[in-house]
UniProtKB/TrEMBL annotation:
Gene3D superfamilies: Lumazine/riboflavin synthase
Keyword Nucleotide-binding listed: no
Catalytic activity: (2S)-2-hydroxy-3-oxobutyl phosphate + 5-amino-6-(D-ribitylamino)uracil = 6,7-dimethyl-8-(1-D-ribityl)lumazine + phosphate + 2 H2O + H(+)
UniProt organism field: Pontibacter oryzae
Residues reported in the UniProt entry to bind (2S)-2-hydroxy-3-oxobutyl phosphate: 94-95, 136
Listed name of the protein: 6,7-dimethyl-8-ribityllumazine synthase
NCBIfam families reported for this sequence: lumazine-synth (TIGR00114)
Keywords from the UniProt entry: Riboflavin biosynthesis, Transferase
Amino acid sequence: MATSLKNLSDYKKDKFKDISEKTFGIVVAEWHDDITGVLCEGAVNTLLEHGAKKENIYINTVPGSFELTLGAQFLAMQEEIDAVICIGVVIKGDTKHDDYINNAVANGITNVSLKFNKPVSFGLVTTNTLEQALDRAGGKHGNKGVEAAAAAIGMLSF
Ligand code: DLZ
């Protein structure tokens, strides 16, 4: 998987099971939507490349990353959804807002995953700068959305 020296989107696919009948919910934050759009595209393309059907991928937006948890819960509670992918970008600013949002999302989506016994992957890019975020959204460090989709497929193959 990811290391600081590798492209972050390198992942192991040899153990992936068939996902052609699986249904995915993607929840995307609207903050930094130029970047979250690229991450979402990476996630969708990865699901399609591995055999998911376009009509089985549901994309919903939430205002900001803080709302990813409830968005994930709305999706995970749907019986037909097999896995959820959360996509957001939180860039550090002058205050500690990023810590609060990042921790809330990490804990929140973990709880959703355990509550509904479904994979809920963490496609939240948490960086110090805009440049670092761009590097992880189709730049030199790959695409974190690809990685989040791969994690969801990986967990469905568990
Ligand atoms: C308020 C806020 C700030 C300052 N920064 C970000 C950010 O970098 N990325 C992001 O996705 N959302 C941010 N938000 C919005 C919060 O996630 C949330 O939407 C609002 O606090 C309303 O609950």
